[in-house]
Amino acid sequence: MWLPLHIGIDDTDSTRMGCTTYIASLLIEKITKRDGVFLDYPTLIRLNPNVPWKTRGNGAICLRIRIHADRIDHVIEDTIEIVKVNSDLDNKKTDPGIVFFWGERIPREFSYFSLKTKQDIVKKDEALKLVKKYKAKAFSFKYGRGIIGALAAVGETLTADHTYELISYRIKRNRGTPRKLDDASVFRMDKEMKGLTFNNVDYEKRGILITPRGPDPIFLGIRGESADAVKRAFRLLKIQEEIERWVIFRTNQGTDAHLRTIKNINLVQSYHSVIVNGTLTRNPISIPGRHVIFTIADENKSIDCAAYEPTGKFRNIIRALIIGDIVQVYGGVRPRSEKIPMTINLEKIKIIRLIPKILMRNPICKFCKKHMGSMGKEKGFRCKKCGARERKAKKIQVQIKRNISTGLYIPPPRANRHLTKPLSRYGLEKTFYNNSPSDFWGKESIHLSFLS
Fold it and tell me: How many domains does the chain have?
């Protein structure tokens, strides 16, 4: 008898080693050797990016398979062993968790729980109650906070908007050394795959975004609209080192899945990601570190918003706002501290309405057509050129042209979070998924001919 099995894994990595998606790639190979049939692409689910105890990318994975009943115990043993060997268990912030669930349909409560993990703060007890209620199995190492993300990955079936990411991995002897990739080939790929992939490069800084910098096993990750697109993009690259393996994940990256629309500012909570409207009540100011801060308010409350230095030229848009402009802000909520009030860290901004910018200028001399100078409070004005005086003249209002317009503005790709939807994806949102996985992993490079 063949049974459907869903395997969720989370919280295995740290800044110094490990990668949950790499663990998935090892497990995929094991399951394939045990004749398991994959019901979906492996899924990579990014969780709430604001939680203070998050792992490096705060991503959990799920594998959905059909396996013969007499091999289920072997798959469970394989999973536990692979997680144990490849997790950074010596790191105090790493708390791996695994969830196994049997069933054709994912319980609705799992889906609600998964949504909450992207937008809210969730406790492990909530996950354990659901595991027990639906007769799933949970395994943990140390405290096991990873059970939260593992169950969330099982609960997220990505039937709505989703994207794909092809992740390739380095052979062990190369980990910790600079990644060898021809940068020019990345820019060529980005132009050829425009609209089909996203966030490959940052044109403002001429930077490559598909390769991480840390000692983890990942060589690169290419994000796009389909499995075929990311694979085609991968083939276009000129890679200059050996690749151990690659996997294509279906994911919620680039979908804004973490953002929640809030009606009033007084409902904004720390560690959430929000969309909220307000009117500027304080002009933007620059603070040390080249960050830009302004304040918005509604009829209930006000809140600070911040565009940080890494957002680059995006800050010029923010600096051009003035008191009275109406905006919609998107971002993660930083809690109040002793010196800093609760602040929305901007991921994007929509300018809804711009008010006229009015400046008060001295009147113009009717003889010289030049601006006059003030002779003192309520003493009138005098022309510096011809000496003409106007005791009853008053300052005049001059409307200044605004150098911005209404619309949506997003920081450059280098400043985007995994979940932030880039401009290129607007209009490409998916509304369903009913395909079967095809050729989604390999143990060897799919383009060895490019190796130097």
Answer: 4
CA-CA distances (angstroms) from residue 199 to 196, 296, 312, 348? 11, 30, 16, 15
Amino acid at position 324, single letter: G
Asked whether residue 93 is assigned to any structural domain, the reply reads yes
* Domain extent at residue 242: 163-256+427-450
Token look-up 């943990």 returns 140
pLDDT at 451: 43
Distance CA 320, CA 327 (A): 12
Give dist(CA 325, CA 305) in Å, integer: 14
**H-assigned helices in 208-261:** 227-235
- Token code pair at residue 319: 């600096």
Compute CA 424 distance to the chain's CA centroid, rounded to the nearest angstrom: 14
Q: Which of 166, 161, 186 lies closest to 230, judged by CA?
A: 166
Do 96 and 168 sit in the same domain of this protein? no
CA–CA separation, 262 and 248 (whole Å):
34
376's CB contacts (< 8 A; 6+ apart) are none
Task: Tell me how far apart the alpha carbons of residues 286 and 321 are, in angstroms, rounded to a whole number.
Answer: 13
Q: Which of 133, 155, 177 is the last residue of a domain?
A: 155
Distance CA 248, CA 80 (A): 22
Which pLDDT score, from 0 to 100, does residue 434 have?
Answer: 80
Say whether pLDDT at 375 is over 90. Answer: no
